[in-house]
Amino acid sequence: MRGNHVRRRLLAGEASVGTWLALPSPEAAEFIGRLGFDWVVVDTEHYAIDIRTMAQMFMAVAATPTAPMVRIPWNDPMWFKRVLDAGAWGIVVPMVKSREEAERAVEATRYHPLGNRSVGGGRHALSFDTTASEYYRHANDEILLVLQIEHIDAVERVDEILSVPGVDACFIGPNDLAASMGLGLGVPLECDIPRVVEAINHVRETAVRFGVVPGIHCSNADGVNQRLAEGFRLCGMASELRYLLAGLRADIERLNWRAAEPHRIDTAGQGDTVRY
Q: Against a cut of 0.90, is the pTM above it?
């Protein structure tokens, strides 16, 4: 059985870096899985990735040295069951704001006696290159559970959230956190707003105190390096979509050429226009 190198690295006190997958593309997932990241997270919370495509992305990533993980849309047992049986090595749970919600996530992730995850079919064992019986024996020790702390309410209750047994890591979403603090949308991930910095530091310090791995989303390699130096150990570097758009945008701006403006024609002199 393949072991989850990400969980082992984090439990050993080492850092682990990965990226987000926003595009519903097994081909893109396979290419990115061979770049050298520890893990990739298939983002089913914010992007149009259905369960079948997600499973195919897990298949593509599991054939590489990278761990296939997923961010589920919501903290609902149905989502845990489906993504884990499809082959996820780890789950990122969005917008956790209370101890009860943390306990619910642990219960849905772990088999009895540590939780109440349903025992059933799927390709979970194939993802770890093992048999179903072997998977059942070791899954509780291999699946990585990450809770997102991305609201000021969660920051204020972070002690009760991160003290829940079975939580492996937390992951700060600086954008949502800043928005929940009334600071607007689009605040940079590595912003220096004192209130945001104080909240982020508080979550990191609390995580360390409870033996939970502190993690955070970063905008680029410089952001990852900054957060690693601050003591974070689970760092996500933007997404493949962000790098795709940034690379193409940069080269388009260097061209000695500009795209044509949308063409308009007058239809039958009636004043209506059709855009092509």
A: yes
